[in-house]
Description:
Blueprint: H1 13-32, H2 38-55, H3 66-95, H4 103-127, H5 131-142, H6 147-154, H7 158-177
Amino acid sequence: MDADTxxxxxxxxxxxxxxxxxxxxxxxxFVARRVADxxxxxxxxxxxxxxxxxxxxSYRADRGSPxxxxxxxxxxxxxxxHRRAAREQRANAxxxxxxxxxxxxxxxxxxxxxxxxxxxxxFAAVAQLPDGERAVLxxxxxxxxxxxEAAAVLGIRPVTARVRLHRARGVLRRQLFDDAxxxxxxxxxxx
Length: 191
């Protein structure tokens, strides 16, 4: 590829493929001399070609050949990676040797995560209930109204409210515990 056609790689897939095939090994060698991790070297090689696509329109033939320009792009990409790695290393060094969380803190955090997961599952199951059953359940379990009070709020008979509450609890029990006979104490069980 010559200097006149290099800008085409920004928008012509065929031109880019030709450019890539012509130069990928040279870029890989360039990166491999500067980066020890083979996976990171492969990622950086890809980043070099992405950067080349993005900056192809700014290529100027009077400043060097397409290969020289590509190595300039590669140098910038690799230098940016070295700066990023150095920042990461400095940040890790600041934290090294310091225990951010004590053993009790880790246990409390795990308990919070577990509780949040259970709450998310519960809210998802409640959201799938029919409107009438969900309304009674929310009034009784969340708003702490009696079944009779929930019935009055919804304008239904107390016996209808009890039936809806019973159905809602049954559905949730099956969805959350996968066993209708489970008798695990749960806040939804309070009446």
